[in-house]
C-alpha cells in the first residue's frame, strides 16, 4: 500500500494517518485544525473562499467568523506561522485564505512512515497510544529522569511508565469514565465541578534522552493542579483512555475528551530544550471562550514545569500549593501575579502580591503593584491615590526605572478617566527620566502612553512618531505583547481619525495575538474597537461575531467598566440590526453596572440610549438622553461621536417642536465650506446644519451644506457616513420630485442594500416614487428581510398605482 505525503519546510503532512510531523515529532492537532490544513494544502493552487472552507472544516454553514478565525489561528500555530508573517497561510481580504508555502508531494510506502526522520526524533515523538517496551523507555540516559523522579511520588511515577509499557490496558473505558466522574479524592480522581481539569501528555521538542518528560511533566502538572483544589484524573487513567481510543481522537477532540472525563478544562503543554535551559508552555482550554496560556523558563526541566504549572494556577484564579512558596523568588512572584492579571483573575493577583515577604518589605513596590491591580479592576480613585503616595517616597525618586514605572502607571490611570492633559504630563516626565539610555521596555510603555494622550488633541503626527519609537524600543526589549499593544493602539488611532478600514487592518491581527498571549483585558478593548470599525463599514455580521467573541468571555471580566463596555457593544449592534427589545435589555443591564463614575462610559451609555429611543420614535426620551450624553462628554476626545449625538439631539428637538432648544446646538451663521474635508465629525455636523436650514425654509443654504456633506463623506469613504447623508438628503429630493438627483444619491448606497436596512429602505422609497413595480416589490422584500423590529412606513408597503400586474400577484400568492 502507498500513500501521499506532503512536505514543506521541516514538516510532513500525512492525510492517510491524519498526522502532522515537525522534524519527525508529531504535532498535536484538533480535528478541525487538521481538516483546515488538509483542505488548504489540497487546494493550494488557488484561494479558498470563506464559505468553502467553513463547509470543509465544520460541515455546515452557520459558523461565525470568530469560530473560523480560531481554527485558522490554531492551524497557523501548528505550522509555525502567524497572522503577521503569513508565510504559510495568507489571508485574502474580503474573500478567504490561501496556502502559499512551497509544498512537495511524494508517494511512499506505509511501511516507511518515518524512514527519513532522525532516530532520536522518532523516539521523542512516540504517541501515548503506542506500544513501547519497558526497556525502550528506560534505556535512555537517566540523569534528567532521575531529577524528575526524585520530585514525584515513586508509586505514581512507576505507574505512569507501566501504563505506557503495557500494550493491553486492564481498564475498561467504563471504569475510566466512572473514576473520572467520581468526586475528587486523595488518589487523584476527578470531579465534574467547574474546578475539574484533564492534563494531556506533554509535547516535547528536545533530544532522545528527554522523551521521559512527555509523561513525567504531565504527572507533575496534574499534581500541582490537584493540590490547588482541581479535580484531575490520574495520569494512568488519562493514558488508558487515550490507548483505548483509535488514532488518539480523544486527545485531539475536546468533545470526546470532556465526555469521557467530565473535565471542564483541557490542559495541553509543550516543553522545549534551549541552549539556556528549558521552556514550558501550557494552555488550559475551557468549554467556552479562549484558552489561558502561560510560559515559564528555567535552567532545570522540573523547575520550568513547576513554574509553568504555578503560573497557570494563577491565571485560573488559584493559589499554588504552599510547599516552599515562601522561598520562591520575587521575579517568580511577579510573573505569577502578571499571569493572573492577564487572565483578569485580580483577586488572585492581589493575594499573590500581598503574600510575598519581599514585597511586604518594600511599601513602595507593593503599593505600585497593587495600584496596577486596582487600575485593571476599574478602581481609578484608589489606584491614582496609591500611585501619588508612592511617587512621594524618597526611595521612588532615587530609583530612576521604578520612578518611571510609577509615572507610567499613574498616566494610564489618568488616561482611563479622560484626564488626557494630566496623563500626558506623567508620560512626559517618565520619558525624560528614561532617555536617552534608560530601560527600553519602560520607555516603550511611556511612549505608547504619550501617543494616546496626544490623540484627543488631534496631534496625530506626533502620536504616530511616538508609536513608531515605542515599537522600536519594545522590539529591542523582546516584548512581543508590547509590540502587539502598539499595533492595537495604531488601530485605535485610525478608528479615532475616522478610518475604520485601516483600523481593522491593525485590530484584527492584534486580537488574535492578544488571545494567544491570554491578555484578556487587552483583547476585550481590541474587540470593542473592532465592533466600532465593523459597524462603520456596515459589516454587521462581522460586528456581531466580534460581540459574541467578547460575550463568551464575560464570566472572566473583573473590571466592572469593561463589563459595561461589552454590554454597550452588544446594544450597539443589536440596535443596528433592528433587535430593539434585546438592545434595551442590554442597556438596562449596562446602566445597573455603570457605578464607577467613568464619564466617558456614561456618555456612551446615554448616547446609545438616545439612538435607540430615536429609532423607536420616542422623541422625548431621545432628547433627554442625548442631553445627558453631551453633559457627560469629555472636554477633548471622541469629536466625531459627539457630532453624531448633537445631530440626534437636534432631530429629537425639532420633532418635539422645540426650535429654541435646538438653535444653540451649533453656530447657525456658518456657511458651508467650498471644499470637502476628511475631519472626523464633519459629515454629521454638516447634516445637522443642512437639516436645520431645511427646517427653517432656507433651501439654498441647506443644499450647499448637503453637497458639502456628500463630498466629505465620499472623500472619507466610510460607508456608514455615506449612508447617513443619503438617508437625510434623498427623501428631500424625492419630495421635490428631483428624481435624477435622488437616483444619483440613492444609487451611491445601493451596493449595501442587501445587508443594511437603511439602504434597503432608501431603495424602496426610490422605486415607490418612480412607480417601478417589479423593482419596488423586490426592494420591499429586501427591506422586510432586514427590518427586525423596525417598521416600514405604510405608504411604502403598497404600490402607488392601482393594482399590480399578474406576475406580481403570483409572487404575492407564492409568499
What does this molecule look like?
- By secondary structure, the chain is an alpha+beta fold.
- Among the domains are: 2-117, Arc Repressor Mutant, subunit A (Orthogonal Bundle), CATH 1.10.10; 120-354, no CATH class; 753-815, no CATH class.
- It is 60% helix and 8% strand.
- It contains 40 helices and 13 strands.
- The chain has a five-stranded antiparallel sheet. Strands 9, 10, 11, 12 and 13 form a five-stranded mixed sheet that branches. Strands 5-7-6 form a three-stranded antiparallel sheet.
- Strand 12 (277-285) and strand 13 (292-298) form a beta hairpin.
- Helix 17 (363-376) runs parallel beside helix 20 (400-416) and helix 30 (599-615) packs antiparallel against helix 31 (619-632).
- The chain is globular.
- Residues 110-193 and 802-808 have low confidence and may be disordered.
Q: Helices, strands, pairings?
A:
Blueprint: E1 2-8, E2 11-14, E3 19-22, E4 25-26, H1 31-42, E5 48-49, H2 50-58, H3 65-78, E6 89-92, E7 96-99, E8 104-109, H4 119-124, H5 134-138, H6 143-151, H7 154-165, H8 173-181, E9 197-199, E10 203-205, H9 213-227, H10 235-243, H11 249-252, H12 254-261, E11 265-274, E12 277-285, E13 292-298, H13 301-315, H14 330-342, H15 346-354, H16 357-360, H17 363-376, H18 380-391, H19 394-397, H20 400-416, H21 420-434, H22 440-454, H23 460-476, H24 480-496, H25 500-517, H26 520-536, H27 540-551, H28 560-576, H29 580-593, H30 599-615, H31 619-632, H32 639-655, H33 659-662, H34 682-696, H35 699-716, H36 719-735, H37 739-747, H38 757-770, H39 773-786, H40 806-814
Parallel strand pairs: 9-11, 10-11
Antiparallel strand pairs: 1-2, 1-8, 2-3, 3-4, 5-7, 6-7, 11-12, 12-13
Helix pairs in contact: 1-2, 1-3, 6-9, 7-10, 8-10, 9-13, 13-14, 14-15, 15-17, 17-18, 17-20, 18-20, 20-21, 20-22, 21-22, 22-23, 22-24, 23-24, 24-25, 24-26, 25-26, 26-27, 26-28, 27-28, 28-29, 28-30, 29-30, 30-31, 30-32, 31-32, 32-34, 34-35, 34-36, 35-36, 36-37, 36-38, 37-38, 38-39
